[in-house]
Amino acid sequence: MAAAKGMDAMFWRSPLRMQEQAFDEGSWTQIVEDLQSVRLDFINCVRREFVGLLHTIERLPIVTPPVRNSLGQGENPPPEQDPASAD
What we know:
By secondary structure, the protein is mainly α.
């Protein structure tokens, strides 16, 4: 399962990236986005392969503290509703 291997690799690689990079808000944001991306891939894989749901989610239904964007304002889009839960 490639999605599980990708998630595992990113989880192990992320602490190393935190130690090796000059730690600032931009590098932290990139690490968090990378972790969320592989987690989303894994979730969609499990939904498709084991649960039988064909609809993929585009973003995690998790509210995180706002990360400042380039304008210095925090933003957090509303969580996506899982259409499978509406049944």
